[in-house]
Amino acid sequence: MSTAEPPPPPPAAPAAPRCPVLDPAGGALHAEAAGLRARGPAVRVELPGGGAAWAVTGYAAMQALAADPRVSRDFRHWPGAGEAPEGWVLAPFAFQDTFANTHGAEHRRARARIAPAFSPRRVEAMRPQVRATADRLVGALAELPPGASADLRQALALPLAMTVICDLFGVPDELRGPLGRAIDTVMDSSLGQDASLAAQAELGLRMVELVAHKRAHPAADLTGDLLLADGPDGRPMPEPELLGTLFAMVGAGYETAVNLITSAALALLTHPQELARLRAGAIGWSDVIEETLRVEGPVMYLPLRYALADLDLGGGVVIPEGDPVVLGFAAAGRDPARHPDRPEVFDPARADKAHLAFGHGPHFCLGAHLARLEAETALSTLFERLPDLALADPERPPARIPSMIVNGPAALEVVPRPAGG
Known about the structure:
- It comes from Kitasatospora phosalacinea.
- This protein has helices at about 30-40, 60-65, 90-95, 105-115, 120-125, 125-140, 150-170, 175-185, 195-215, 220-230, 240-270, 270-280, 285-295, 330, 370-385, and strands spanning about 45, 50-55, 70, 150, 305, 310-315, 315-320, 325, 390, 415.
- It is of the alpha+beta class.
- The N and C termini lie far apart (about 100 Å).
């Protein structure tokens, strides 16, 4: 007697679509951002090293969220903060104990303590110092033999930005190189867990060394005047906050300017017609810098922000309360909804150069004035003193920084003087 065949199993339910994964190495930041933008005002993505967040890459949505009091940078507003793995590559930014990661009245009080040092008047007073540094560095490039090449990032952008920010905070000469290398390494979001832990430990060691030096050698600089001195409440800044604030200010001031200078130089060298217009006076340095900020902002995703309430972005997209958010600042200037005319093209003469390269709202970058001054001074000195400056290999685009956090060329090989010149 035969038995009936068992019924076939029901078809498996279709797998839930997987979140897109942000490329930890930032290999194609703008293409990645354009793909996310096409999917809606916010897209849930997987973060490097684990975890998920809502990525926002459109100008209007980003501007609205950056100014919305229902969006916080304080990781105490993230219910999932305790689930981050040890050695998480984004931890130095997301969990940094600094005024930048505070919210509301607490953030306003902490920011007010530091903001006056970066006012337009204070920054303008630094122009002679920045000019002297640029003259020295460009002078060294001019002394290279004809036909010799140099990495413009390492020879000009990086030492200029590091000199300016370290002078401002009183970083001793012997610590500047190690501190800069530690910051660069921590910015590499492609690091694995062990390498990330080592990089974070190295940066922490350098910051502790800096604070110890400043306590032993007090001076009239920002570290002494603002951070080691008693605050408005009569108390000194707690040590963890002091270390975090120094990293935030030195790291942000250094990386932003380096990437802006390098990207602007690359844009001019790959658009000779724009360089000719600049030299003819048809456009100015401000046009070049603002257009570079629009098309190649120096910062992409700066982790993280958190929804304090359900945030309805329209189009059926709601970011739930408690969820983390990453804003793609370097992507905003390329949003076709904001710049319908060739948004990806470097055009310093365009009338509308709106961007969010320095952020927006209460967390707008304190160092924006200084970054613009450094870029204008470095670039004008470079192109005036080296009129024949050219790319060493015009056919090969430079490699990008391996990071989803910052955006710019990892190196820029140039020939300051042509062979036979």
